[in-house]
Amino acid sequence: MFYRHLQGPIEALLFASGQPLPAERIASMLNIHIDHVHTLIADMVNSMMAEERGLTIVEVAGGYQLCTKPAFSNIVSKLAAVQESKLSAAALETLAIVAFKQPVTRQEIESIRGVNVDRVVTTLLERMLIKEIGRKEAIGRPILYGTTIEFLQCFGLKSLEDLPDISRLLPDIHPEE
Asked: What's in the keyword line of the UniProt record (predicted)?
């Protein structure tokens, strides 16, 4: 392939970014067509799988990200020695409501959950899993919340379209209501 010499620069960009890098941005930085970026990355992924390499490239949150292969997670976790920070059941429930109903107000979340969600929403905002995305055109102009790129990364989703169909999971729930 003519552009094979650009695999190194792509790998360097993904490493330096640390965040998902959209193919469009890679193409513009390297002055190549976006289709070549997709082809090069597909070749790189195949190469990384065939060899005993510790890294791979994943498509997540609207871009590509260089990641450790799952097989090496135990070794990497020893290096990081990071204490796992899990979300409470209340936080997961609230996050699910935001993910499936966004844009959604705090009051709408509370009406679904039946409890005050001030503390949980604050936690989700601090962890950058949700963000303020605007104001609702209603009395008091309440804040509207939606999910973030970090949410997509955390759950390994390319986009919100990768969320499961809630109507199949819970037939009595109608997300459009």
From this structure: Cell cycle, Cell division, Chromosome partition, Cytoplasm
pTM over 0.70: no
Pairing between strand 63-68 and 104-105?
unpaired
CA–CA gap between residue 17 and residue 60 (Å, rounded): 14
HEC sequence for 54-81: CEEEEEECCEEEEEECHHHHHHHHHHHC
Q: Which domain holds residue 118?
A: 89-169
The answer to the question of residue 175 being in a domain is no
* Position 177 pLDDT exceeds 60: no
More confident site: 126 or 169: 126
Residue 128 has pLDDT above 70, yes or no: yes
Q: Residue 176's pLDDT is what?
A: 52
Q: Quick check: bond before 103 cis, omega within 30?
A: yes
Token code pair at residue 51: 């060899």
CATH of the domain at 59: 1.10.10.10
Exposure string of 24-58, with b = 16+ CB inside 10 Å and e = fewer, is ebbbeebebeeebbeebbeebeeebeeeeeeebbb
* pLDDT for residue 143 is more than 70: yes
